[in-house]
Design a protein that fits this description.
With 206 residues, the protein is α+β, with helices and mostly antiparallel strands. The protein is built from 6 helices and 9 strands, in the order αββββββββααααβα. The strands form 3 sheets. Strands 6, 7, 8 and 9 form a 4-stranded antiparallel β-sheet that branches. A hairpin with a 3-residue loop joins β2 and β3. α3 crosses α5. The longest helix is centred in the first third of the chain and has 22 residues. The protein is elongated and about 75 Å long.
Length: 206
């Protein structure tokens, strides 16, 4: 092989190596997310990665957190039961609008030992929010939740979750609400009976 051909071959190998290295070392942060960078040697970097493409050493890991509004919707198989002041247990569908606070991402990542945003929501937040919601709904009757002024209840749920999740998970809750109520047959009969009783009372007083 001539010297010129050998040189061209070597240059080609170097270029291919650089391209492969660039692909391996490139990390994309989607719109609405920030990334926390961690390495075994240096620990957690002080600065997060904002949206876009970044060159990151193969020895470092990047965990992504949503910092724009994200929706958590629990319905269907994920619907859950809450408590009421009259000792009823009623299933609800629930939605929550939230985001991880950019200013506390580093602390959140360190606190949860490398979990990313989705891990924290799935493995920590979902189980805790159910008990927190019941703390609020246990102050209201079954009828309040089923057909009463649900906006007041949702406002209290939002305030309770926002306060609890900010300190515990670095999460800001913008809105949280009961979107639907799913009484079982026995509970529905009890609700219907109460509705009829109230209607009779109102007619008698008219």
């Amino acid at each position: 092989m001539s010297t010129g051909k050998l040189g061209g071959f070597i240059v080609g190998i170097i270029i291919i190596g650089l391209i492969i290295g660039g692909i391996i070392c490139t990390e994309r942060i989607p719109v609405g997310y920030e990334g926390v960078v961690y390495s075994m040697k240096g620990g957690v970097q002080k600065e997060t990665l904002t949206q876009g493409w970044h060159l990151v050493s193969p020895t470092k890991k990047v965990k992504k957190f949503t910092v724009s509004n994200e929706q958590l919707l629990l319905k269907g198989e994920e619907k859950f039961k809450i408590s009421t002041s009259d000792d009823a247990s009623i299933a609800i569908s629930f939605q929550m609008s939230y985001r991880f606070m950019p200013e506390t991402l580093i602390d959140t990542y360190s606190k949860f030992r490398g979990m990313d945003g989705e891990d924290i929501i799935e493995n920590r937040v979902k189980s805790v929010l159910k008990s927190k919601i019941s703390e609020v709904t246990s102050e209201y009757s079954m009828m309040d939740i089923y057909s009463g002024n649900r906006s007041e209840i949702n406002k209290k749920i939002t305030e309770t979750l926002n306060s609890a999740f900010k300190s515990a998970y670095g999460i800001e809750v913008m809105d949280a609400s009961i979107v639907d109520v799913h009484p079982d047959d026995q509970l529905k009969e009890a609700i219907d009976a109460r509705v009829k009783a109230l209607q009779k009372k109102e007619q008698a007083e008219a």
